[in-house]
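Input record (one chain):
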Amino acid sequence: MRVPTAAITAGSLIGGWQVARRTGVRPLGGAVLAAGGILAGRDWARHTGPVTTGALVATYLGAFALSHPLAKRIGPWPSVIAVSAVTAAISYAVADRRVLR
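The corresponding structure, as predicted from the sequence alone:
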């Protein structure tokens, strides 16, 4: 059964943040983030072209980077939820919707 990349990206952004926050080991949270990126990236590479895959990877990494300054403005939970939701929506619209039909 295929797991949608929208779920992978949102789950790894939220999960990576929670792992880093609860353990105090930021690289461990980064490992969760990297694992999610690799899983989603492999799926994107299989089902979309290289330009689309690159754009989706950039979106995923950009969401991670954006969550930090956004957290200073709106708080950590709202920030992580917001970037995860946007990333999942983009991933679904660009990649998953075509494959899941």
